[in-house]
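During the second half of the funding period, the structural biology subgroup turned its attention to how the target accommodates small molecules. The most pressing case was copper (II) ion, which had performed well in the primary screen but for which no bound structure existed. We therefore specified the complex as follows and requested a full 3D prediction, including the ligand pose.
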Amino acid sequence: MKSIIVLVIVIALSGCAAVKKDKALESMPYDAPVQKISMTAKRFEFTPEVIQVKQGTHVILEIESLDVTHGFKIEQYGILVTIPEKGRATVEFYAKEPGTYPFQCSHFCGAGHFGMNGKIVVE
Ligand SMILES: [Cu+2]
């Protein structure tokens, strides 16, 4: 109970809590294959903007901002992080189910911000 209260306070103080890992990682088989993917973010695109992974993969995605602060959000995996100006952020998820998982920039970065997105295709 105490830890829940502390967690709530931490989330409240931090404004937007960073979630770097998909909850499904907890139930992932220990021998799931790992795939590391590098991505860059700049006004107003992610490169690559379409990522294809195999079902059952533990995906580690390292994102580098080439310019300003960006964000990275995958709604369906519950992932939300900030990528600092000229910095990096790493997110992880378990590609448990096949499907298309859209992602987008979650930190306002200018005129083209709302079109800064892409998708993960799990096959
Ligand atoms: Cu943006």
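Two results from this model are relevant to the next phase. The chain has one domain: 18-122. Residues 70, 105, 107-109, 113, 116 surround copper (II) ion (CB under 6 Å).
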